[in-house]
Amino acid sequence: MGLFGDSGGSSLLGHSNVRSLRLLSPMMELALAIDVGGTKLAAGIVDGDGRLLERASVAVNDSPVGPGKPHRGGADRPDGSGPGRPEAAAEALLARITGLVARYQPFDRFSCCGIGCAGPMTPGGALVSPLNIPAFRSFPLAARLAEETGLVCRVENDAKALALAEGWVGAAVGVEDYLAMVVSTGIGGGIVSNGRLLQGGTGNAGHIGQMIVAAPGRAIPSHVAGSLEAEASGTAIAIHSGHVAEEAPTAVVAEAGTFVGRAAGSVANLLDLKLVLVAGSVALGLGEPFFAAAQAEMDRICALDFTSGARIEPAGCGDEGPLIGAAAVGFRAIGRVVGPAG
Fold first, then answer.
1. Which end is more exposed in the chain, N or C (fewer Cβ atoms within 10 Å of the end residue's Cβ)?
2. Cα separation of 84 and 297, whole Å?
3. Could you give the CA distance from residue 143 to residue 158 in angstroms, rounded to a whole number?
4. How far apart are CA 231 and CA 263, in angstroms?
């Protein structure tokens, strides 16, 4: 067992998955990385070269029911789906996160802590209100985790964090203009233009999941009908088809890929970019049929000379991207710029 070997991965946290890649040298610069998703929480150790050394994950709820299938019964579920008080749901989810990262103590071995979380959020990530995590509404996630760990903690939109990872050690190294997307329980985007990560007026640039891709389109709770997230996210697939994404029929997979390609191609035309990198459990899980449909739709939409040949591909960092990106957020919080500027 390694220095942080998982001697009790199932314990009170429920099912978890831990991978140890190497023993850690005390001379390494390390970031504690956390990814907060709608159905899964992940944490890990990332070194200063962008290598994920160890990671662990745990379901948000003890008995995960999959995207789009709310839990029936039981108050104050960690995901906020129970009928209890919102404050209790938020504290339950925070306890789930702190329980997951407790295995990495002592925390003073880390230089920083970076967190990826869906948006929207207030400037600087001070308060988070992710659409797919009802437990957190104007929740001070970074401040609460700083209290728990004693580390400098910074929160960033998870798709923007992915964009940092791809430009740091992924498929966008050396690329000045690209879009990174997370297609999972929800859908988000991070945009790099002229070598800089776009922030927007409040730090919420990149919410590609709110782009309209179908009219009149279909709706899911808390989303505009016809928006990408309401049509192609894991939540939407489950609601509209009655199947979790990994069991969705071929036609549903192709439709989801088409909608993603439609949004990605529109962004490519708008911002003059030719590379789209996609991560997230839904996109990576659906695999080649999803990406083939997305590319076909991008080929149709990107008919201008400057976007002709634009590509949509799996993220170079694969399923490690969200944690590597979260680490990049942490390193940037202490003044170490990794990945794109901005």
1. N
2. 43
3. 17
4. 11
Residue 280 CB contacts under 8 Å (≥ 6 apart), including other chains: 181, 182, 183, 184, 187
Q: Note down the domain range covering 235.
A: 171-316
Angle between helices 288-301 and 250-271 (to 10 degrees): 40
- DSSP 8-state secondary structure symbol assigned to residue 173: T
* Whole-Å CA distances, 241 to 133, 234, 249, 284, 288: 21, 10, 8, 19, 20
Q: With b meaning 16 or more CB within 10 Å and e meaning fewer, what string describes 147-164?
A: ebbebbbbbbbbbbbbbb
Of 156, 187, 211, which marks where a domain is finished?
156
Whichever domain contains 119, its CATH number is: 3.30.420.40
The Cα–Cα gap between 145 and 147 comes to 5
| 341 found inside a domain | no
- For 255-300, write each residue's pLDDT tens digit: 999 999 999 999 999 999 999 999 999 999 999 999 999 999 999 9
Express each pLDDT in 202-222 by its tens digit. Answer: 999 999 999 999 999 999 998
Q: Average pLDDT, whole number, for the chain?
A: 87
* Residue 189 placed within a domain: yes
CA angle centred on 97, ends 96 and 102, rounded to 5°: 100
* Distance, CA of 66 to CA of 136 (rounded, Å): 19
Do 178 and 309 fall within a single domain?
Answer: yes
pLDDT in tens, 193-206: 999 999 999 999 99
Residues 212 and 186: their CA atoms lie apart, in Å, by 15
pLDDT on residue 338: 92
Return d(Cα 9, Cα 205) in angstroms, integer.
37
Residue 165: inside a domain: no
